[in-house]
Amino acid sequence: MRPLLYHKLDDDEIKPTFDELMDVIILIDNNWQLEQANILEFNHRIHTEITSKPILAKIASHDLPYYSLLNAAICGLERESHPAIVSLIERNPSALLWRRDDDRQTMNDNRPIQMLASHPQHCVLMPWIATEFP
């Protein structure tokens, strides 16, 4: 499944929710001193939002620092946020294979699946992914 491009969305309810979740990921990424309780709260929030609005896991944007919520979570979150990453993957496993158009032009291959596999903390999710989404 191809991503739904953010700038083509008409839904005024989905864009603000997507933006808020992206902002929270960036906040966590930029604040290493964030308390564990806040990270657990975020895991719960993303799970709740993604469960109630699965479309959030299908959105991508070339205009944002991160291409998708899954990319942002892989790059900006640590081991404590594996539940959030798992929720995103469960709602849209095809996002594991997405890459930005500009990556195609530069021959970079920063697909989420490769980012997970090479990440020192997130690589532990690979056996689960292989089992659930062969």
Question: How would you explain this protein's 3D organization?
Answer:
- The chain is mainly α and 134 residues long.
- The protein has one domain.
- Helix content is 54%, strand content 3%.
- It has 7 helices and 2 strands.
- It has helices spanning 14-30, 36-52, 69-76, 82-91, 101-106, 112-118, 126-132, and strands at residues 4-5, 59-60.
- Helix 1 (14-30) runs antiparallel to helix 2 (36-52), helix 1 runs parallel beside helix 3 and helix 2 (36-52) runs parallel beside helix 4 (82-91).
- It is globular, with a radius of gyration of 14 Å.
- The model has no long low-confidence stretch (mean pLDDT 84).
Chain-wise SSE layout:
Layout: E1 4-5, H1 14-30, H2 36-52, E2 59-60, H3 69-76, H4 82-91, H5 101-106, H6 112-118, H7 126-132
Helix fraction, binned, reads: 40-55%
Report low-confidence residues grouped into runs of 5 or more.
none
Number of helices: 7
**Rg over alpha carbons:** 14 Å
Element order: H for helix, E for strand: EHHEHHHHH
**How many structural domains?**
1
Main β-sheet, spatial strand arrangement = 1-2
How many β-strand stretches?
Answer: 2
Sheet with most strands:
2 strands, parallel
Strand percentage lies at under 5%
Output the keywords.
7 helices, mainly alpha, 3% strand, 134 residues
Question: What's the short story on this structure?
Answer:
With 134 residues, this protein is mainly alpha-helical.
